[in-house]
Structure formats: structure tokens, C-alpha cells
Specification:
This protein is of the alpha/beta class. The protein has 12 helices and 8 strands. It has a 4-stranded parallel beta sheet with strand order 2-1-3-4. A two-stranded parallel sheet has the order 5-6. α10 (245-254) links the parallel β7 and β8 (257-260).
Length: 294
């Protein structure tokens, strides 16, 4: 993959040197922000609606196998703020930024919540609202530094959004406290370590994390099935953009209900068109959580 990224970087650098290539200038009146994943993209939309914010991933695209195009690299070079996760799945970012004489301002989600790449156990830090609050606070501060003039509207919007995240956090804690159980079963990849750790939940999972190349063993499938039966677990969870085959297998063997628990990493075209937000997806997760813990 490194050879592929290098070739793309060289192609982008050649295009950057071409006159009239149509790349947006950082001298634009609007603040331009590019985000690699959906949550910070949605946060910026909420707190800085006057900014021109774009999502690098296409709707429904698998982020862990993403490779930037030359156009992506040119757009990043010319934006005001580039927001990325900072984890292993985005190792290409360091190579890209190293080629730029004048890189844009950057913000990494791992750093927002005080995690270094060496400490990373799960890069999906935004799945827990307390972490989302810290990310929004960091975005607010960074955008203020990049914006000239009065930032009162930005501060007000950020305060309102953080209040909504705090309400969501309270609702999740109440659901966990009132739940009959504190165990979740994920018959899928598992991007929720921050969520389960922060809310004191235990998870039985088919995968340790989000490695989509590995397949769970027959013993793992049997263990999940036995857990659902032994603990009378009512709901088996899967994540977005999954083929759901493993969840179907466990549900067919146990009679449990299959439910989507959205990591918000990326969304489908239909979800984009319907106007989903991080908050709306997390509210749907809250409904599923209550059912799973009930």
C-alpha cells in the first residue's frame, strides 16, 4: 500500500504544480475544513455552519481500506483545517503531510481526547459522548483561531451542541443504570471499546477490534451463541456497512433479535440524503441499548 500512496502523492504534487488546475485557494472568504470521517464533519456542520466542510470518505465507503486520490490530496493541501483520526487506519496521512511545503492546520481526534498513537487500542473515540464533547471543544478552539472577527455565533453554537451531548451522555448513563444486565453481544467487528469502558459495560464480540480481513472461528461463533442462550440476551448487535451474516447466524440459533448499533464512522448515501446526524444516530443507539440491556 505504501508504494500506492507514494505514487498518488507524486501525481498530486505534479497536479499542484499545474496552472489552472482548479484547486480551491486558501484565500477563499469561507473557512474550508476537510474531515476524514463523519463525526467531526457533522460537528463542524453544527457549530460552524458558515464554513465549507467536506467529508473525505464517499457515502458508504469502508474507511479502513481508503486510499486518497490525487484530487483528495490537492484539496487537503488547500484547505484551512484538516481533521483526521490519527490512528493506524490513517497511516497514509503522515506520508502525505510530509510532502507538503505548506500543509494546512491539522487536528487529530486521538489527540483531542489525550490518546497517543502508541496508546491506541481503539481509534473510534467519538463513540462515547464524553469524548465527543472534548472533540467539539477542540474544534471550537481551533476554528476560532482560524477565523477572523467575532466568534460569538461559533461559541454559542458550540455551547448548544455540547449541552446536547451532555444530555445524551446523561440518557445513556440512566439507561445503563436501570438496565437488567450490563452485557452487550456484538456478532460483528467491535469499534466500541471507548463506549463500553466509559459506561461500565461488558462486551462479548466476534472480533477484537475492526480488522475486516479476519474471520471468526467456529469456536468464537459457538461461544457467542452459548452466551446469548445462557444469559438470555435479547439482542445481538451488528455495526453499519456490515454483511450481517454472523449476526444472522447467532440470531437464528438463539431466537435473539438483530439490531444495528452505529459507530458513526461513515454513513450511507441514503442516510446522508435523509439528513442523519451524529446525534440522531446516537439517539437510535440509545433505543437499541435500552432494548439490549432490558
Amino acid at each position: 500500500m505504501r508504494k500506492r500512496i507514494t505514487a498518488l502523492l507524486l501525481a498530486a504534487l505534479c497536479l499542484l504544480g499545474c496552472a489552472g488546475c482548479g484547486v480551491k485557494s486558501r484565500d477563499s472568504d469561507k473557512l474550508t475544513v476537510i474531515c476524514t470521517v463523519f463525526p467531526p464533519y457533522d460537528f463542524v456542520r453544527a457549530i460552524a455552519p458558515e464554513a465549507e466542510v467536506s467529508l473525505l470518505l464517499s457515502a458508504g465507503q469502508e474507511s479502513h481500506s481508503y486510499e486518497p486520490t490525487p484530487r483528495d490530496i490537492m484539496d487537503i493541501q488547500n484547505c484551512d483545517l484538516f481533521v483526521y483520526v490519527g490512528g493506524e487506519s490513517e497511516a497514509w496521512v503522515a506520508d502525505m503531510l510530509a510532502t507538503m511545503d505548506d500543509p494546512p492546520k491539522t487536528l487529530t481526534l486521538l489527540e483531542c481526547v489525550g490518546i497517543t498513537p502508541a496508546e491506541e487500542a481503539d481509534e473510534h473515540v467519538w463513540t462515547a459522548p464524553p469524548n465527543a464533547i472534548r472533540i467539539v471543544e477542540a474544534l471550537e478552539e481551533t476554528l476560532c483561531h482560524l477565523t477572523e472577527g467575532d466568534n460569538e455565533a461559533l461559541h454559542t453554537a458550540a455551547d448548544d451542541y455540547i449541552a446536547a451531548l451532555k444530555t445524551l451522555d446523561d440518557q445513556i448513563r440512566a439507561a445503563v443504570q436501570s438496565g437488567a444486565r450490563h452485557t452487550l453481544v456484538f456478532a460483528d467487528r467491535f469499534p466500541f471499546r471507548h463506549f463500553t469502558d466509559i459506561y461500565g459495560l461488558h462486551a462479548h464480540t466476534a472480533y477484537e477490534g475492526c480488522d475486516h480481513s479476519a474471520e471468526p472461528s467456529a469456536a468464537t461463533v459457538a461461544a457467542l451463541t452459548d452466551t446469548v442462550k445462557a444469559e438470555n440476551v435479547p439482542v445481538v448487535l451488528h455495526i453499519e456497512l456490515s454483511n450481517q451474516k454472523l449476526a444472522d447466524t447467532v440470531c437464528e440459533a438463539t431466537g435473539a433479535q438483530k439490531r444495528l448499533f452505529h459507530s458513526c464512522h461513515n454513513v450511507t448515501k441514503a442516510e446522508i440524503e435523509s439528513g442523519v446526524t451524529y446525534l440522531s444516530l446516537m439517539q437510535e443507539n440509545l433505543i437499541v441499548l435500552k432494548e439490549a440491556l432490558g
